[in-house]
Amino acid sequence: MSQETKFKVNIYPSAKPKKVPKVVSAELKGAASPKAISRMKKESVDCPVLKKEVAFLVCFACPSFLRRVEGVVDCAGVQGPPQEWVVG
C-alpha cells in the first residue's frame, strides 16, 4: 500500500550547510552517490512535521519522504525523523 502526498515542500540552498548526524550519513552511503550526497548537504527544507528547518539529508532519510521532483519533496506527513537526527 503506497502512501499519499500530504505536503509538498520546497527545497532551497542553505547559506550555511546544516550539520548532518553521522547515523544519517552512514545510512545513505549506498543509496546515493558521494557527489549527490555532497550536493544535498548544502540544501535545506522547512519540515512540516517538525515545523522547523532541517537539512535535506535528514528529510531524505525520513520515513515520510516519498519522492523528490524538480526541487520539491512529496511528504506523507505521517511521522517525522527521529529526534536524534535533528541537530540545532
Model description:
- The protein has helices at 22-27, 34-40, 56-61; strands at 7-13, 43-47, 52-55, 65-69, 72-75.
- It is α+β, with helices and mostly antiparallel strands and 88 residues long.
- The protein has one domain.
- The protein has a five-stranded antiparallel beta sheet.
- A hairpin with a 4-residue loop joins strand 2 and strand 3.
- The radius of gyration is 12 Å and the shape is globular.
- It starts with 6 loop residues before the first strand and ends in a 13-residue tail after the last strand.
- The mean pLDDT is 85.
Features:
single chain; 88 residues; alpha+beta; 3 helices; globular
Termini gap: 34 Å
- Number of structurally distinct domains: 1
Protein structure class = alpha+beta
What is the strand tally? 5
Helix content: 10-25%
Q: Output the strand order for the largest sheet.
A: 3-2-1-5-4
Count of separate DSSP helical elements: 3
Point out poorly predicted stretches: none
Rounded average pLDDT? 85
H-E string:
EHHEEHEE
Q: Give the biggest beta sheet.
A: 5 strands, antiparallel
* Tertiary shape: globular
